[in-house]
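Quick one before lunch.
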Amino acid sequence: MKILEAIGDIREEIKEARRNNKSVGFVPTMGYLHGGHLSLIKKAKEENDLVIVSIFVNPTQFGPGEDFESYPRDLKKDSSLAQSMGADIVFSPSIEEMYPLGCSTYVEIEGDITKKLCGASRSGHFKGVATVVTKLFNIVMPNRAYFGQKDAQQVAVIKRMVKDLHLDVEIVPCPIVREGDGLAMSSRNTYLNEEERRAGTILSKALFEAKERIEEGEINPLKISYFIIETIESEPLCEIDYVEVVHGETLESIERVKGDVLIALAVKIGKTRLIDNLRLEV
Ligand code: AMP
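Model of the adenosine monophosphate complex:
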C-alpha cells in the first residue's frame, strides 16, 4: 500500500488505473480510523479494483471553538489499519496542498438540507464538507465513493451536490457500525471519560426504543421526538442539541411517520458532541 501526500502523485496513480480499465473506490475520512471507517474500506474493496482512502482533518468544516486542533490524529496506525482492510493507497495531503495560498472558491448547498439539524448549530460546517469533498472528487475522480449513514445529513448533502453539479460518481451509503452496547463508533468517542462513555449509550437506546414505538403504531413525529428527549434527559450528563424526525432524503419536516423517515439527534456529553440516527422505511 502506498501513502501519498501530493495531488500530482494521486493523479498519476489514477491515470495508470484508468489505462488498465480499473474501477476506483474512494473512502474520504478524517482519520483516527475505527470499525465504522473500516466497514467502508471493506465495501469499497469488494466493489472496486483500486481503493483510495483519504485522511485529512479538514479545517474548513470546523467552526470557531470546535475541536480542529485537538481532533485525534495517528497516521501510522491509520495506514496499517487501512492496509489490513485492503486499501491500495492512503492519500494524506497537507492543508497547503488542499487549500493553496489565496484559495477562495467554496461549494455551498442552499436550503433546509444544510440549514437544519447539524447545520443549525454548526454554521458553515456543510460548506466546508461540500468544498473538501468536491476537491477530493476532482483529485481522485472515483467511480464510487463510500460514506457512512452515521453522518446521515452529510450523505443527504453530498447526494444533493452530486446531482446538482452532475458529478460522475456513485455515492454508496453504508450502515452505522456500533459498539457492543449500541454507541455509534466515532473518532470523537475517545474524548469521553468512563462516566461519559457509559452515559453515551442512552442515545442509541432512545433511538431503538423510539423505533419500537413506531413499530407499535405511533405515527406522530412530535410524540416520537418528545419520547426521545425525555429518555435522553433522564441521563444528567446529556445536553440535547437537537432531536428531529424528518424525511430521510430531503430532511424536510414530516407530519406523519410514514415512508422514508430519519430520526436524527445530536447530544453534548461533557465537552463532546455526539450524533446518532436511525433511518426507517415505515
Ligand atoms: P470521519 O472520519 O468522521 O469524517 O468519517 C469518515 C467516514 O466514515 C464518513 O463517511 C462517516 O460517515 C463514516 N463513519 C464514521 N463513523 C461511522 C460509523 N460508526 N459507522 C459507519 N460509518 C461511519
